[in-house]
Amino acid sequence: MKRTIDSFSVKTVRLRPDPEQSTGGSDTEPSTSQVVSSPGLETASSDNEPRAMDSEAEPTEIKKGKIYTFRREWLDQFPWLRYSKADSMMHCTYCKECGKTMAGNTAFVTGCNTFRIETLKKHNASVKHTTCRDKCTAQVPPLPAAFQRQAAANASSDEAGMIIKFNVAYHIAKEELPFTKFKAEIILPRKNGVNVNPTYSNDVACAQFIGVIGDTLKKKTSVEIANSAYMAFLIDGDTDVSTKECVIVYGRILQRGRPVNMLIGHIEVEHAHAQEETIIHPWPYLKEMFSYVGMKDSSYRIKCLLCLPRVTELLAFKNSPSNLKKHIERKHVGHLKKYEELTLRKRKRAPETLPTTSTLRQTTLVNTRAVSQRSIDKAVMKFVVQGLQPFHVVEQQPFRDFVKELQPNTKMISRLTLCSMIDDASMGMKKAVTEAMRGVDHIATTTDCWSARRRSFIGVTGHWIDPNSLKRCSAALACKQLRGSHTFDVLASALNDIHSEFEIRGKIVRTTTDNGSNFIKAFQVFGVDENNAVGSDGDPGNASQPGEDEEDQEGDEEVEFVDVSVPLNEDDGLEFQLPQHQHCACHLLNLIATVDAMKATSNEAYKKVYRSTFGKCNALWNKCGRSTLAAETVEDACSLQLLRPNARWNSLFLAVERLLRIMKEKGEGAIRGICTNLKVPMFNPAEIAFLTEYATVMSPVAQATNILQAEANAMMGWLLPTINLLTIKLESSGNQEPFWPGDPELIATAILLPKFRTTWTKDESTIKTGIDYIRQHIEEPFLQLADANRSSSSDDDDFFSALQSSHAQDGAKQLDGYLACSADHMDLLKSFPAVCKLSVKLNTPLPASAACERLFSIAGLVFRIYAASKKAFAALGDQCSNWLEKVIALGADGAAVNLGRKGGVIALLQQEAGDHIVPFHCMPHRLELAMLSVQRDNPMMAQLYDLLHLIWKTYHFSPKSMRELRVIGADLGVNVLMPSGVKGTRWLPHVSRALETFLKPGQFTAVYYHMDHLAGSSANADIAGRAKKASAFFHNIMPFIRATYTIVKKSIEDATFVAFCHFITDVFSGISKFSLLLQRNDIILPQAVCSLEKLLLTTEAMVARPKPNGRLSEFLADMRLQRRQQQEEGDTAIYKFQKGEASKLAGDDVATKLTKVMDATIKSTVKHLNARFRESASESDTTKAVKCFNIFNHDSWPENQQDLVDHGADDLGFLLDHFSTVLRRNGVNTELAKEEFVSLKLLIARMFKDKTYLSLWELMLTKEPYCSEHKNILHLVHIMLVLPVSAAVCERGFSTQKRIKSDTRASLHSDTVEDLIRISVEGPSLEDFDARESVASWFSQGQRTRRPNYYDLAI
Hints:
By secondary structure, the chain is an alpha/beta fold. It has 57 helices and 17 strands. Strand 11 and strand 12 form a beta hairpin. Helix 7 crosses helix 9 and helix 21 crosses helix 25. The longest helix has 30 residues. The protein is globular and about 120 Å long. 32% of the residues are buried.
């Protein structure tokens, strides 16, 4: 068949109508004679509805004398427009096809007769029309084959260009280069003749590409985690260069039978506490498109992930994600189908299994009282709110099972429903509190400010006395975010708004705060005094009163016209009105007990004992607070934990009191043993006596603070009696001065409490002042009363009638009667109404702001490193949502925040996921702690550390000194190396390297001579001081060294230290190799245990004789050779190690001393290694589980076959029981596992005994038939292999972070830092990196079509 041009254009389509050309014609737009045909679209060539029409159109709209007609040229101007002459209506083809569901209620769907060009332009620019247009154009038929091939070629060309750019971006991230290098890296291949498009060649595009690559790698991690049956995760925290605290999380799983560590996330946290705020997505099934940001009023703040890198935040109602769907329809029409699939998948989830009929009948027989669904929902809400539980607890299966077990008929509420219920309950409680406060006349408040997670909050509590029961009532009024600086006007505005919100502005008698200067100034400026006069800035008392002189001058003043808005807008200090201010009494007492008490240190004797005592106390408290091992030591020895002082009131007194309690109950020997074990100096008798006296003096202050900070029973009237009695107790002499005859209101407040009345002080003038105040104010309310039922004939009689009332006399009589009564209960006040009313008013305020502090304490629990880990796993997507069910261990350093048994991450993890989770203290970290303990035990080792540190510090901070050292080394024929540091270094191999450098042949001599030179000639005092110390070391340890070209005076010789340096180098050589082994990513528990045994054996063997071919053996051989050569050749010989006398090394005293030091060092090393790795003060199930895994160490199996069959049976039973939860979840049959273990041992002993641990278990886990025949027991092997022996991978992650986020890149976002760490540490090499997946992902993202050739097209 002959082809014509028509065969290529049977169906001609307009691919993408440009909305920018809708206002006029264009060369690219089809004319009215062209045919536009597509399924579902009306065409201009249709016989039923012609697009063209006669030029003389029939007038169809007449308004206000004007005639509007449809114009023919509009069809060319707006390609989507259609006109029906029969109906005299025009409509939009796109909107008509999509219908009102997508197009809305526009008239262009059914027909529009408003024939105006403005109407068409407005519709053409509308968002809904654009959405309909994009949907219809996306449904056009495919291009013919020729055009498809050309489009594929263009797409392939675009993809090839983008692959180059993604490879360059990957190279930038892999080499940890700044993003600004990206443009130069793109220009370089263009200079070399490679055609690279300049589009997307800036640093912003580079960051975007790296983000896409990071997401691609994260997806692969997510797949690996999802496919793994068991996993452990490792966490650690650090502070980056911008002083932000970060948590890094790694997961440890098996890949093809070998353990690997994979980065889960890098999260910023406000405070490195164990708990953190849990952020749960309101619609988890939409996580691929939207991420949860936070709350705004009653709506969710949602960030669109499809709009990245541009940040787009949306607001969505709590009960509907409809706004999110609208955003997809407007901006991402291509993703609408995916959105609908995700929503449909959520709706099609299988409903919860309902109980069977028999179960329901049985439940009805057992339960005598039916519980409604509403009651259960309220109980669940109460459990979550009052227990401070995370909202997602209602979606956890164990909690659902718990509720179902109690009430099988109930339907469990969702998290969103719970949130709505809490909001409703909060609004209802707010209304109830407002209504309750509306019924009282006098209210007091407390307020304070608080900061958490880089946000500030202001808290306000309200307090009043019930006039009927005379009991204290309290309510939390607000805990709201406070934006901006905490200046006095900001605080005043926030307080005023809260008071107005609860309608209590005119009822507040006093507001109690701490002594913060911002609060004090706020009440000074905007507060009122007792006479209701505004504070200093607006005090009407300062205004002059008009007098005769002013009246005389009134006529002489000139009239000046001003703008009325100016004085109205001026800040006259009256825009806010605050109540009277009350200073927190507890805060004042705390200042007296701490700041004012420090004035006693002016006495030198007191100052000396004070500092020494609390110095030891702080050392003890810090040890227990920073080390879980130290805390366990104290608890085992004393059955109590030490209390650590904090910022709260009485905390120092309580900590000292706990120390004295331990001494009293357990004896001073318990504290002495604790101090000995923790290497803290012991208290002497004088210091113990000082602590006892301190507790005696501060005990009344602590009691007074506890009384005043009470909330339920404390009244303002308690203040003066408490302070008065405290003063009496603290007074050393018997003569007591009259206390505080001042503030009459506070005196009257105490008198109006039946508990005290006039018995709290013996000062008559004070009592008289208070009673006079009461008499004056008890009469005031009655002077304002008038008999409402009495009619008066004149205004005079009516005005002065109150003076004739007997209420004043009644008030005085009631006061006398009240004072004469002997009862001390509050109900007494009900017998004297006038006294009761004044007492309620004066005693309503609280003497302390502790109520607001408690409010913040509860709020602080909401902000929870554990949730940072959960957030990192949540970022992996829904397929890893069950990661908690797979976790079997947590690896971290020994910080209490990580491995604390009560409040650490492990405690929270075990509480949520199960007690089977094993806490694993990083073994390299334990090894380092053990050697630090050895250093503290051995003075000579501590001396060596100090010497190495002084040498490093001298040459590290002075290039001149290092240059001089190299000159001396050149004269001696020695290649001098830069000394290495030992203090502040994380891992032990650095110590070994420093020792090797220090003892390098010739380097020791060069350093000695240079130190001796610096000590006498350096002009730098710091360098000279360090050199003198170092030189002193040399003079003390080895004065037998003499220079080759100079004569050094011989002095006392001591070769013991030099020999000890060589000996300790041998010790650290083996320990550093063990440390390096533990830092490997693929290290497994059997390897670590076997290497530890070898280390202990080789270390203990050094007591008998030096390490063969070791440093000490070489040194002793050199010394023997040196002595022979000195005897034969004299002082003219030059020797291998150094020149000098060494005769005393052979002396019995030196040999004995060296032997003793070596023996003590070996014993201390073995002891501390056993303490850190083998022995435990209290063995728990989790630590026992780790030990039980030794049954899989085939090197320790017995040789006898019968013994081998029975070997490890008990330990296996314990492991199967301990991990029963996760094993059962993975379908493990425990009985078969026991049988398979016997056959596995026999198989390995017969055929694979010579294999290494990793190769053996890799073979068993991946090769048939072994993996099938022993599938049940191999689950325990799987668990053993993923145990996190070392957390060194976290340290490497933070090292990478410090290289990436440097001083010049301190503003990098945490997500970008995570992507860069992931690429740098885990990404494949540049040769193995395949960018096609990332490029495809990039093309599918964004709010508009990607245009990689934009600049080429523009040119």
